[in-house]
Specification:
By secondary structure, this protein is mainly alpha-helical. The protein folds into four domains: 200 residues, no CATH class; 223 residues, no CATH class; 73 residues, no CATH class; 166 residues, no CATH class. The chain is built from 31 helices and 14 strands. The protein is elongated. It starts with 7 loop residues before the first strand and ends with a helix.
Length: 697
């Protein structure tokens, strides 16, 4: 048997014995060989035992899941238990997704994607049950298709959820030729259709929330303080955890001896049952040689957060808080996905010096675009978080490694995020992070204020409905792992710490658009906090008005030569100035009241303000004889025109093959320059164009 019997993406830990040979399940189903069909293996465990068979109501496919944080590791068909035809059809579809080649995409599908598809497909099968239909192929019939769309619309789902449901239906239809089912071809765009069927307020895709700054400050301050404090005592904390576990094991041994010797005959509950394990663990704790409080007070004397009467309950809470704090530091200061955080080991941290500066990194694996090793830039406190977790879970990892028999067991023994739950149970990977982080938010006192709520609305423009439903003033912030990733991108942009390209590199995105999506709201929030300095603005306006007034005053009350359409008008009225131009104060008031304006460029001034027709943007020559009498050209700008005249003549001499459009553009500026230079009595050699020369001949 070989791995290629499965047409999905498989993690490296999956070996050949876990991949059963493909079977002609369609033929077995058609011939009604149900016993043989039900015995067809779907997945094997790492020892070659069948973990899931076709006939199982729940397929356990945990061995094929690539990411360590996956919460869904099964496909549950129980909803179709009373509908045999539909049950077998859906199982055939799921089998086909796993064992037949994906013809739509170039990359193999991950098993977690198939589990998600199966979940989305259940809504379509719910419709079939309600309408007493015997096959999913019936949905594409015109009269039934309309009912199906009405059914989805009545569900009042979001656009995102409906896309998930419709895509699952599309993927099921792709398998119909393999299943030998006759069907009408159905062409739909799930994204477009979902927006028509969803509830009005859920059309747009909503984002994970960026945490408001006040809440983020409380959470990170609390987390960093816990980690910094624990880091100094990390060896003692690790020893405390190990001693408490060893103490319990001694109690277990004492109880076991009493049972074996026959001294205890009352513990007669069948061994291995929940009742037996409960009573056994209770007695083991009772017969442990040392009190947990004695071990804690002996090892953690002087620890800042340790009360005088600390017992096992305090330690359980403290260990949970420390674990959450370390997770928060690693997530918040790296932007890693939850699946990537679960790849961290005690050897993940390292630093390097570049150009005299020390940079801090985490190395691990990412699964988003196939499994590959990579690294992330992090803050220095992450080193301490890794070292604290390494100390806290050292004895758990050693325990797992001691009993490891497969590659998957060895990988689990390297994981930092382990917990035991009860002293009597085996260590396992933490899976309930949303609950842990919500509790951490409560311990940190992250209560939402009106200011936090208002900031949340500004920072998350694509999640207004989510905010209304899940963010409540006076309640604790509902923290989730992915919020740290979104928040890091948001604050990076808001505080100008980087750009979307840097986020793309750090977040291991394939497309820049995805990074920009994570950064949404950053720039508007940055602008919201910009406050104008009114005093400074007033001073700037005053200086600007005084400069404009002085400019006009010098033009009205001097003998300076001027050019331009309005410049020539000024020359005409100098000998008989209107009264409003004779006083500096009156002239200043006209400028201050915006009744007179002035804007300047290299080639001219303009008095027309917003009434300017902007022809000079296309060609400065239009400003020399402005049709709206707004241009003023002084001696400084006349010098610019002289330089422009020389430059353009040289350009045309060196580029004799220019187009007529370019030639016309140049010649109009040359003639305008000559007009200005004539007004200022500047000597120049008039340009003779080729057309004029040809005329002379």
């Amino acid at each position: 048997m070989k791995k290629n019997t499965l047409k999905i993406y498989l993690p490296d830990t999956v070996n050949d014995i876990q991949c059963p040979e493909i079977c002609d399940v369609v033929s077995l189903h058609r011939k009604q060989y149900k016993d043989k069909l039900n015995d067809v293996p779907i997945c094997m465990d790492d020892k070659g035992n069948v973990a899931a068979k076709f006939g199982d109501m729940i397929w356990n496919i945990e061995a094929l899941v690539a990411t360590k944080n996956a919460t869904h590791r099964h496909i549950n068909f129980s909803v179709l238990k009373s509908h045999s035809l539909l049950l077998y059809e859906m199982k055939l579809i799921c089998y086909g997704w796993i064992f037949t080649k994906n013809m739509q995409y170039s990359s193999p599908t991950k098993i977690s994607t198939i589990i998600g598809r199966a979940s989305g497909l259940k809504m379509s099968y719910k419709f079939l049950i309600l309408n007493s239909l015997d096959s999913i192929s019936r949905i594409c019939e015109p009269e039934i298709w309309g009912k199906y769309l009405n059914f989805l619309e009545v569900q009042k789902k979001s656009a995102g959820t409906l896309v998930h449901i419709l895509c699952a239906l599309q993927q099921a239809y792709l398998l119909f030729p393999w299943m030998g089912i006759d069907y009408r071809e159905i062409k739909i765009s799930p994204t477009i259709l979902s927006k028509k069927l969803c509830r009005d307020e859920a059309i747009e895709r909503e984002q994970t929330l960026a945490i408001p700054e006040g809440i983020a400050d409380k959470l990170l301050h609390f987390a960093v303080n816990l980690v910094e404090t624990a880091w100094k005592y990390r060896e003692k904390l690790g020893e405390t955890e190990q001693r408490l576990q060893e103490n319990y094991k001694l109690g277990e041994q004492a109880v076991q001896n009493k049972i074996i010797s026959g001294q205890w005959k009352w513990l007669t509950v069948e061994k291995g049952t929940p009742a037996f394990r409960h009573h056994f663990a209770k007695e083991a704790s009772h017969y442990s040689p040392f009190k947990p409080s004695d071990i804690i007070s002996d090892l953690l004397a002087g620890y800042p957060d340790c009360p005088v009467d600390a017992d096992g309950s305090w330690w359980h809470l403290q260990r949970g808080n420390l674990t959450a704090a370390c997770f928060v530091c690693c997530a918040a200061f790296s932007g890693m996905r939850e699946s990537e955080l679960f790849e961290l080991t005690s050897e993940s941290y390292y630093n390097a010096v570049y150009s005299g500066r020390t940079f801090h990194f985490l190395k691990g694996k990412t699964h988003k675009m196939r499994e590959r090793h990579t690294e992330w830039v992090v803050a220095p406190v992450v080193q301490k978080a890794i070292e604290v977790m390494s100390a806290l879970t050292k004895h758990l990892r050693e325990n797992l490694l001691q009993h490891a028999s497969t590659m998957r067991d060895i990988e689990l023994a390297q994981c930092l995020w382990l917990s035991q739950g009860q002293r009597s149970t085996q260590p396992k990977r933490i899976s309930c992070w949303s609950l842990r982080l919500t509790n951490f938010s409560k311990y940190a006192g992250a209560i939402i204020s009106e200011k936090d709520y208002a900031e949340c609305l500004r920072s998350n423009p694509n999640s207004q409905e989510k905010i209304k439903n899940h963010v409540h003033i006076g309640k604790h912030w509902a923290l989730s792992p992915h919020q740290f990733r979104r928040t890091l991108a948001f604050f990076t942009i808001k505080n100008r710490l980087g750009n979307a390209i840097a986020i793309k590199q750090q977040f291991k995105h394939l497309y820049l658009q995805m990074s920009e999506w994570y950064c949404e709201g950053g720039i508007p929030s940055r602008l919201d906090e910009v406050e104008a300095d009114k005093e400074l603005q007033k001073m700037i306006d005053t200086v600007s008005n005084e400069q404009i007034t002085q400019k006009y005053w010098s033009w009205f009350h001097s003998t300076e030569t001027l050019s331009g359409s309005h410049g020539k008008d000024i020359l005409k009225i100098r000998d008989d100035l209107p009264i409003m131009f004779r006083s500096w104060e009156k002239l200043y008031k006209l400028v201050k009241d915006k009744r007179i304006t002035l804007h300047g460029t290299l080639h001219s001034y303009c008095k027309n303000g917003y009434d300017c027709e902007m022809e000079g943007v296309i060609n400065p020559a239009f400003c020399v004889d402005c049709s709206t009498h707004g241009s003023i050209i002084d001696s400084e700008q006349a010098a610019w025109w002289k330089s422009k005249h020389e430059t353009l003549i040289i350009y045309l001499a060196e580029n004799t093959g220019v187009s007529m459009a370019v030639y016309t553009h140049c010649i109009t500026q040359i003639r305008a320059a000559e007009k200005v230079m004539s007004d200022f009595a500047i000597e120049y050699l008039p340009y003779k164009s080729e057309i004029e020369i040809r005329t002379d001949e």
